Amino acid sequence: MNTFRFSHEPLDTEALRESLRDPACGGYTSFEGWVRNHNEGHNVSRLEYEAFEPLAVKEAQRIMAEAVERFGIEHASCVHRIGDLAIGDMAVWVGASARHRHEAFLACRYIIDEVKHRVPIWKKEHYENGDSGWVNCERCAAPSAHTEHDHAGHHHDHAAHSRSHEIAREQAHHSESSERLRAKARAQGTPSQGTPFGVEGAALRRDPHGMPEVRPDYSRQIALKEVGASGQAKLRAAKVLVIGCGGLGVPVLTYLTGAGVGRIGLVDGDKLEPSNLHRQTLYALKDVGEYKAVLAAERLNALNPEVDARAYTVRLTAENAADLLAEYDLVIDCTDNFSTKFLLNDICVRLRKPAIFSSVYQYEGQLQIVRPDRNGACLRCVWPEATRDGLVGNCAEAGVLGPVPGVFGSLQALEALKTLLDLPGQLGDELLVLDLLTMSTSRVRIRRSPACPDHASSRVSRPAPVAVTNLEVEYESLDDADAAGLQIIDIREANELVDMPTPSGNARHIPMAELLHGNTKLAPSGKYLLVCASGRRSYAAAEELRSRGFAEVYSLRGGVTGLARRSVI
Ligand SMILES: [Zn+2]
Distance between alpha carbon 150 and the CA centroid of its chain, in Å? Predict the structure, then answer.
């Protein structure tokens, strides 16, 4: 057996141990992670764990399978608590049984280390002084505080993880961090100057010497009349997913974090390489080999602890994309490969989420914003022959100067803030192309293509009715007609509805005879869409109602059978 699960209940270690028992196994080893009463010099009173479960379970099960495969063990199991935990509670349990003890030890260690690194679980610490905060590994943000990275702190800190080593590093970190804070406080005068905004629930840390922590200050953007306190509240409520933590992603992440966007998801399955550093200014040489998403989330947390930065060390795939995107309002594509861009495009169109795309090639790049929520054009409308990977070189093959992705990432961040703040002048259905060698700019108008497979296959709504004649309109679905403000009236007989119900939750049923001869009390000023089986009766009825002064009554061409048959207009 080989399982991972989350539990809201305390763990029964006896039952867990028994589940791994096997007469063929001579070795069993387990690990327990406990909630401790301190972290980074703060007295912790309790913890909350939150997991992004669909993705977490998939990733954790992958880890379990890897452990079995790698170490040839017989059974492995891991259970992680979520919800409220008290000091001393067991937060995680790992068990492995094998023919020999050696493999069991190795597999157990492997599972807990990988779970800590790769599984999206977040921890909120509650402190004795009443403050609380989502915790990332701030140790890692202090340059000289350690040599070995322990990303456990990012996800969760359990007691049994090489204790003496950890304590030594924490002490080093504390002296470094308090020194840093004192220097910062001195440089700024009063630490609380400016307009601290929306501080409840944020990480209001104090250093071990009682010096108040300097708080994020958004006064320079709140001063803009288009932003103000209400704009800041919008940013705080926003959830933005950034795909790719490289040359484009770094400025996007930095500016959105500085601006106080409430939650930022970071998706990147790559580890930092030395060749990244000339353009990816968030990282340091000593971080080479670490997951970029984790490193970036730690930096962002140091930059603004009010922002809930969540690292997903995975590659975006057709399998996980919809789950990931569901949690966020706006998506920013900062990848350098076309298959990911088109995958992202298709899912954003399907989920009707806005997405900001950018691509960079040597000295030039382009920016496009896809707004399926406004029925805008998408990537496939512009590039019907989706560019295959390898056709246009990425940074590795073609070369790039560091500031080029920096410029485009900054433009993406700017457009993201404009979108979130609902500022005027947002890039519409157009492609912005900049050549930074010649400094030439062009804006190309793009149109939503009727041939685009995305809009055809994904049944995206088109609230504007497609008038075939003055009377007849077509929709991809009745939900679209509903979204366009039309009252849907199915005029078929009751027995017809039994065989084929009206494909809409918002339709009224008024049989044709009643509609034309009964007292329906329909207001002639209303907007109606009449629906029948084939579109013939509804056409006749709409014609009749028009003659009686119903100015905005329409007939659905093809009727409900047409809807069932056709997904393309
Ligand atoms: Zn399209």
Answer: 25
Q: Is the dihedral of CA 560, 564, 566, 569 positive or negative?
A: positive
CA of 261 to the centre of ligand 1 (A): 29
365, with CB counted inside 10 A (0-12, 13-18, 19+), is buried
Tens of pLDDT, residue by residue over 336-380, are 888 899 999 999 999 999 999 999 988 999 999 999 988 899 998
Residue the block writes with tokens 């989502």: 134
- Report the separation in Å between the CA atom of 356 and the middle of ligand 1, taken as the mean of its atom positions: 14
Helix (H, G, I), strand (E, B) or coil at 421: helix
Q: Which residue has the higher pLDDT, 203 or 56?
A: 56
* Distance, CA of 351 to CA of 328 (rounded, Å): 11
Residue with tokens 């569901």: 326
Q: What is the DSSP string of 387-409?
A: PPBTTB--HHHH-B-THHHHHHH
Ligand 1 center to 415 CA (angstroms): 20
Question: How far is it, in rounded angstroms, from Cα 430 to Cα 418?
Answer: 16
* Among the listed residues 264, 262, 125, 87, the one whose alpha carbon sits nearest the alpha carbon of residue 204: 125
Question: What's 151-208 look like in SS3?
Answer: CHHHHCCCCCCCHHHHHHHHHHHHHHHHHHHHHHHHHHCCCCCCCCCCCCCCECCECC
Q: Is the dihedral of CA 59, 65, 69, 71 positive or negative?
A: positive
User: Which of 272-276, 474-478, 534-538 has the weakest average pLDDT?
Assistant: 474-478
Residue ranges of alpha helices (H) inside 356-506 are 379-382, 395-398, 403-421, 453-457, 478-483, 494-499
Which residue from 252, 246, 253, 300 is spatially nearest to 271, judged by alpha carbons? 246
Tens of pLDDT, residues 98-110: 999 988 999 999 9
Enter the tokens of residue 158: 């359990």
What is the distance in A from the centroid of ligand 1 to the CA of 487? 28
CA atoms within 13 Å, Cβ hemisphere of 551: 1
Taking the centre of ligand 1 as the mean of its atom positions, its distance from the CA of residue 357, in whole angstroms, is 14
Q: Which amino acid is at 258?
A: G
Whole-number Å distance between alpha carbons of 94 and 113:
11
Bridge partners (DSSP) of residue 43 are 38
First CA to last CA across the chain, in angstroms?
51
> pTM for the full model?
0.53
Ligand 1 centroid distance, CA of 378 (Å): 4
Q: Reduce the DSSP state of residue 301 to 3 states and report it.
A: helix
Span from the CA of 246 to the centroid of ligand 1 (angstroms): 27
**φ and ψ of 96, to 5 deg:** -145, 135
374 Cα to the center of ligand 1, angstroms: 12
3-state secondary structure of 537: helix
